[in-house]
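Issue: ligand-bound run for NAI - logging full I/O for the record.

Environment: standard queue, default settings, no custom constraints.

Inputs:
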Amino acid sequence: MPYTCVLIPGDGIGPEVAHAAQKVVDASGAGLEWVERPAGASAVTQGHGSVLPEVTVDSIRDHGIALKGPCTTPIGKGYTSVNVALRKKLDLYGAVRPVRSLAGVPTRFEHVDVVVVRENTEGLYSGIENEITAGVVTSLKVATERACSRIAEFAFHFARERKRRKVTVFHKANIMKLSDGMFINSSRAVHEAYPDIEYEERIIDAGCMRLVQAPEDFDIILCENLYGDVLSDLCAGLVGGLGVTPGANYGVQQSVFEAVHGSAPDIAGQGVANPLALIMSSVMMLNHLHRKHDDQKCADCAKRIRDAYDRCLREGATTRDLGGELSTDGFADALIERMSG
Ligand code: NAI
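Outputs:
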């Protein structure tokens, strides 16, 4: 069945990596149809009147899946994050960021295989900030029982479905007794229905120390929004950086697949960005289509792409961030060559 994917190039290196990923998916034989839609600062400069035009949100509602490049968010001023707004509008409550050690990408650790499952709709990301009086501001951390239970259910279900062994909750309930307290209480309650999955809790500061000492201790890490954001980049660092870390944001009806990295303005427009993280995200998208529609062809295409990028990495056919010399497009071509060879 032909599926339609909304392609959102985004800002900075976004268009470069998005078009490289699109080329790879097409070459895999998946037969996806694409509709390209704007988002980010570039949507405004292109005259769409908003950083998140309704036409983009409507297209994702219509087609159910999107492959999204990164969008720039101004620091300390300006409009609110396109990513946060999109996740809220479509209720994309479950973010999944898998990291695994990759042959050919030398790092300090060899056997990392961790998935960060992040609550994507509340916490400090609610963006509720107030200036109480000059020199005094507050930022509200929101936790609801519904969202805490929903993400815990998502994480345990994910663990069982993917045959993972353990869920570890990272929290700070010793200090934030009500909000993080609700998070761990909800996780404990949900765990009762999943006795086959091991469950543990770690206070986030000590958990982070353990993560960089012995990442093999961890399997699925479950956490609220801000912790998940920080931990995703930390985990990316364990396996070779932002160029190799994919992500997915799942809702009930729609899912948006995007790399963990941002728009990388320092290297935008130079053709040197690593498209692999977004290509890996597209593999997650194909596997999602396989599970959702029981469509084996999507799984086969996902495997074809994954085998080919594993080969690229083993053979040193990589971009500059991984020590290679290939351009963004050059890497996509090298991968496509290995899919057919
Ligand atoms: P960043 O991830 O864009 O860049 C951090 C460092 O990693 C830079 O040195 C960059 O060159 C490098 N890098 C990132 N992706 C790379 C790739 N694919 N290949 C090679 N090198 C890569 O993070 P930064 O600089 O903090 O954020 C830049 C902008 O991106 C900000 O406006 C931020 O808000 C936005 N952002 C957007 C995200 C999204 O749309 N999902 C996620 C994270 C940040």
